[in-house]
Fold this sequence. Notes:
Layout: H1 9-23, E1 28-29, H2 30-37, H3 41-54, E2 57-59, E3 65-68, H4 70-98, E4 108-115, E5 118-126, H5 147-154, H6 158-171, H7 177-193, E6 196-199, E7 206-214, E8 220-229, H8 240-255
Amino acid sequence: MEREQKGVEAAxxxxxxxxxxLQVQRPTRLKExxxxxxxxAAKLHRYLVSMTKSGLISKQQMGSRxxxxxLTYRLGQAATHGQELxxxxxxxxxxxxxxxxxxxxxxxxxxxxxxxxxxxxxxxxESNSPLSIRMKPGVQLSITTSAxxxxxxxxxxREVTEPLVRSELEEKNICTAEEIKRVYKKFGVxxxxxxxxxxxxxxxxxxxxxxxxxxxxxxxxxxxxxxxMSPGFDAxxxxxxxxxxxxxxxxxxxxxxxxxxx
Length: 262
């Protein structure tokens, strides 16, 4: 049985206060927040002073009501930013898939993101091919073999990705310093080239190509992945499918204000 990990009580109290702020009509009085959270008014007041200083909470000038602060709103915007952009771009993904009349150029397009503890596909767009090659959205991908996952990992801090890399390599009984070095060398090449590919990583004969999608700040918000079955689908980095996918990635990134650096 897994032992429960100990946390920081103060952080949990801050979380409870923020949850309470979402339950009451804002701006709210201390008494209303006390009833929503079950935290005593005296304790609430001390926390609200610190949370106001940090920007998580705001207090009306010359008043006694509290609201969410600027930092809280910025966190909310950051959390929804990527998904809002993807919703805006959906018609472009659908148009791209509609043009994949030739199955050699791919049979489905998936949108990948780093969600929670790892990489996953969050949305699928299929062509009219009779062959269904989709996986369920939300399934965590292999960080050492999946084109989508490797591209996402290449843009994440090593301290975030290395535990996942080590875990996968340990499952294969190949977790050596040399193998870890090889994986990160590959991540470096993928980041430099702006494209990743895989052959049979998830299913025999199923190949994939993946390119990044950047926002105005140059941050990676998602990957665009094309899937197809071999031998028809060419997953090489120099093939026509790779060329079309690179072009789509650059076009959509530019629509979000991204300007490539030389």
